[in-house]
Amino acid sequence: MAKGKKKSSESKGRKITLKMAKNALKLTVDGKRRLDLSNMEITTFPKCILKLCDVDELDLSRNMLKKIPDIIDSFVNLRWLDLHSNQLEQLPEAIGRLPKLHSLNLCNNLLTTYGIPYELGLLRNLRSLNLGMNRIETLPPSLAALKELRHLGLFNNLLMGVPQWLHSLPNLQTLNVKSNPICSDEPQKLDPIRRVECLYLVREGCLCSECLQKCKEERGKVDSRISKGLVQRRSILAGLITPNSVAQDDKAVCR
């Protein structure tokens, strides 16, 4: 019975209290208040943080959240929201009621096209949107209204093509569509847009078996290149004549 209770308690995840949340408040270099609850094994959105809804930045990344409630629109001052590396399948419509939001990170979740609400296009001040490492097959047309968008991450999804309206976003500077099954015969018109890659640190437990295997293979390749470089460097150094050896030869000649 005791073991059963322990297992049930673990499935509920870590409970965040208001005191814990207050201790997690930080001040950014530009004087903004950030509530950092990342990597704390949270499975449900902690309602106690509504007491701190005046923060400028909210970090709930690297947890086990499956749902973001509609009360997210209480954080009216949010300019930065990080939800990467959770288990989100759908976003609430209330996400579009964050008028000051500049950056939204949704990377490494379980989002599909149907999980992205139309209201996301109402974030008219949004400059950075990361939707990489999800299950998105097509982009919702409402995203065409994000005229202030500068950076868009769509890497590692299921996109078969890039919509034409994406090229019409007036301020888009960087676009990452790497690792998508985009048709090769589709004309690419992304030359003016610089493609970039992003790096995210996640726990091995957050990765599926396939992704974990790929990471191990890539790590093995890097280790192999490093070891080869060290061998080559040692062989070069071994062939060099040291200053001491030259001095000894000169001394022998003088004798």
How confident is the prediction overall: mean pLDDT?
81
How many strand segments? 8
Q: What gyration radius follows from the Cα positions, in whole Å? A: 25 Å
- CATH C-level category of the largest domain: Alpha Beta
Identify low-pLDDT runs: 6-10, 187-201, 240-255
- Strand-pairing-aware structural class: alpha/beta
User: End-to-end span in angstroms?
Assistant: 91 Å
Second-tier CATH architecture of the largest domain: Alpha-Beta Horseshoe
Number of helices: 4
Keywords: Leucine-rich repeat, Repeat
Organism: Pygocentrus nattereri
Protein name: Leucine rich repeat containing 18b
InterPro entries: Leu-rich_rpt (IPR001611), Leu-rich_rpt_typical-subtyp (IPR003591), LRR_dom_sf (IPR032675), LRR_domain-containing (IPR050216)
Secondary structure elements and their pairing?
Elements: H1 2-11, H2 18-23, E1 25-27, E2 33-36, E3 57-59, E4 80-82, E5 103-105, E6 128-130, E7 151-153, E8 174-176, H3 209-238, H4 243-254
Parallel strand pairs: 2-3, 3-4, 4-5, 5-6, 6-7, 7-8
Antiparallel strand pairs: 1-2
Short précis:
Pfam families: LRR_8. The protein is of the alpha/beta class and 255 residues long. The chain is built from four helices and eight strands.
Question: Any overview of this molecule?
Answer:
There is one protein chain. The chain is an alpha/beta fold and 255 residues long. It has helices at 2-11, 18-23, 209-238, 243-254, and strands at 25-27, 33-36, 57-59, 80-82, 103-105, 128-130, 151-153, 174-176. Strand 1 (25-27) and strand 2 (33-36) form a beta hairpin. This is Leucine rich repeat containing 18b. InterPro entries: Leu-rich_rpt, Leu-rich_rpt_typical-subtyp, LRR_dom_sf, LRR_domain-containing. Keywords: Leucine-rich repeat, Repeat.
